[in-house]
Each structure stands twice: as C-alpha cells, then as structure tokens.
Amino acid sequence: MKYIRFYFDHWACSTRMLSLEAKGAWLELMVAMSTQKEPGKLEASVDQIARLWGVTCSRAEELLSDLEMANVCEVTRSERITVQCHELTKASKAYEKFVEQRRENGRAGGQASARARAEAVAQPSGQARAKASAQPKAKQVLKHTTKLLATSTTKATNSLKEAPTLDEIKAFCASRSLPESRAEAFFNYYEGHNLWRNKNGELIKWFHMIQNSPWNEDRQNNGKNGTGSLRVNRNSGTANDGDFSEFANVGKVARD
Question: Is the pLDDT assigned to residue 59 strictly greater than 90?
C-alpha cells in the first residue's frame, strides 16, 4: 500500500489562503496523484477531475485556478490538464531511494550470512577453542589412556599367574611359623573346590587367607553354629582325656 508523508505544519501554511472546498479538492487530488505510475503527477480531462471532486466542469476550473494561485501545484492546460506537485514527486523519489537502500542492505546481510555458513561448514565449529585447550586435553587423554593400559596390564598379569602348589604353600607356612598341616588342609580345600580365582579370573590373595580362620588351628569350628569359637576339651582329667569327639567314647567305662 502506497503512502505519503503528511506534514501538518506544511499543510497549514500552504493551504491557508484556500477555502474549505478548495482544501478538500486539493486533498482528493493529492490522493489521486499518489496512486499514479509517476507519483506527484496527474494527467486528466476537466470532466474526469470534475467527477473526482463531484462538481461541475466550470467549478472544477475555478478550483484548479485557486490551487494554482496558492502555489500548491502546477497546472498545465492543453487537450488534457496536467497537475503536478513537486513536493509529492520529491517525497516519492526519496522513499524509492530508501527502499532500494534497505534492499541492498538486506542483500549484503544475506550474502554475509551465506559466507559465514559456508565457512562454518568448511571449518569445524569450535576450532579456535579446541586449539586453545588442545594441550590440556591431550594430557588428560594420555593420562586416561595410560591408566587404562596399566589396569589392563595388571589384569592380564593377574590372570596369567598360576595357582600355588602345595610346596609353595608349605614354604610360605614355614616362613610364617605355621604348621604344615594347615598348608595341606588349605591346599586340599581350595584345589578340590577350584577356588583359586575370583569371578574376574584373577588369582585370589591366598597368602592372606591362609593366616586367618578357618585355617587357624587355634580357632576350630565347633560343628554347630559355625562361629569358629575356641572348642573346650570337656574330657580333660577323665578316662576319655584326649578325645575331642562328643561321641568317640560312648559306652566306655570310666577307670579309677
């Protein structure tokens, strides 16, 4: 939709000498000129202008003379009447220039955005930040990789270790002043139940376990509650002294 810039002070000064009817005729004429192919210029016959204003042809001629006398427009009479307002023409050209400038700015902005997108596609995003933090990140990755390698190497080493032999367990017990019977009982139990490795396939720390209950002869399981409490020899001082079994000497006669 086309529009014109309407300045009230300019309107009041330029139409002060016009009658109320001439002011209305000039306003209608400005609207008609603004809708032309060349804004600010209107070519029409007297009959067409009279129909535009809703007056007779003679009255239309009088109103055109009033407008020309007030110097609000130029009127050229020939076969057709040409009415031209230089202020409207000037304002129209200024607006066209403004629109063209806006169009150029939009085109330039669009091209700049296109170049930026193309550069972003060609160059990975965040490359500047990656360069700034490349050294610390490299150290962190190296440290993490080293930890993984060390863990993997440790697991591989543990998984490659062989289960201890009976002689090794006896030698360890001898170095800790532990009885040889403990070494044999420990070896037979773990070898029979295949308990040398945990669920991850790693060799258990048997050299710690053999030093604790239930492989400690000083703390024997009483066979009832499994608490591992010290068993008391209730046959001490009797004819059954030395028999720990509760039913070993059933039926024996006590001697004096």
Answer: yes
> What domains does the chain contain, in order, with CATH numbers?
1-122 (1.10.10.10), 166-209 (no CATH)
70 vs 13, which has greater pLDDT?
A: 70
CB 82 within 8 A of CB 75: yes
* Tokens representing residue 194 in the block: 């295949």
The pLDDT value given to residue 47: 92
User: What is the total residue count of the chain?
Assistant: 256
Quick one: pLDDT band at residue 108, thresholds 50, 70, 90? Answer: confident
Whole-model pTM: value is 0.36
Half-sphere exposure of 141 (CA within 13 A, CB side): 6
Looking at residue 197, what DSSP letter applies?
Answer: B
In the chain, helix, strand, coil percent, each to 5?
55, 5, 40
DSSP code for 54: T
| Chain center to CA of 37 | 54
Matching residue, tokens 């009415």? 83
